[in-house]
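Hypothesis: this fold can be encoded by more than one sequence.
Test: take the structure tokens below, design a sequence, compare later.
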């Protein structure tokens, strides 16, 4: 069975790159970041955390200089981004693949034209990949998680599952998990603690725990 997933989150700085490294290690998957905004490159970060020798790290479709929303970074670089610019790389057709998005679901990838911009959630639909959503835990994360999950449900995007990231809060996790199970027919794939230092060994430990 081929495993190919798009990784997004309920917000920015959610730990998507750490989680992507765990998934790449667990699946010995290839990794692709379609839009990189700012340095250091997330591709380099994932590569440093992965121990297996089977994974390949594919070139970004856009590598923007400014560390900000893709639509704003692209404007600075005088680049126009549209959904038609994106296709899954040919090398990935028969390989496990992790595709990491930028920010959360409604981060814009271009400026609005005729009142409508394209967002990361539109890119997920364009690539037709099942989604893994990172739900980091903080005050307000229930609201942000449910809003993201509601958008996924309304778009009929296939949710493979969610990954909790951060200091455990069982009351919050239970609310979010119940929504995932009963509204989207999915599950929690992994719980990642608030880690002080991220290493290859830590990535391997979590990779051995994930349940697909």
């Amino acid at each position: 069975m081929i495993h190919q997933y798009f990784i997004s989150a309920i917000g920015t700085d959610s730990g998507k790159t750490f989680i992507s490294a765990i998934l790449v290690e667990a699946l010995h998957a290839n990794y692709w970041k379609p839009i990189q905004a700012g340095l250091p490159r997330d591709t380099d970060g994932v590569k440093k955390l992965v121990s297996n020798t089977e994974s390949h790290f594919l070139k970004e479709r856009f590598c923007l200089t400014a560390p900000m929303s893709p639509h704003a970074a692209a404007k600075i670089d005088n680049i126009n981004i549209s959904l038609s610019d994106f296709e899954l790389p040919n090398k990935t057709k028969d390989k496990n693949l992790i595709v990491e998005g930028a920010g959360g679901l409604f981060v814009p990838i271009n400026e609005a034209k005729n009142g409508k911009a394209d967002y990361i959630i539109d890119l997920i639909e364009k690539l037709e990949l099942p989604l893994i959503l990172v739900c980091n835990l903080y005050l307000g994360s229930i609201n942000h998680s449910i809003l993201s999950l509601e958008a996924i449900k309304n778009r009929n995007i296939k949710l493979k599952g969610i990954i909790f990231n951060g200091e455990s809060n069982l009351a919050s996790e239970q609310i979010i998990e119940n929504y995932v199970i009963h509204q989207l027919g999915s599950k929690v794939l992994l719980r990642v603690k608030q880690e002080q230092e991220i290493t290859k060994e830590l990535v391997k430990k979590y990779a051995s725990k994930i349940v697909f």
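The chain has a mean pLDDT of 96. The CA atoms of residues 2 and 96 lie 5 Å apart.
Hypothesis status: open.
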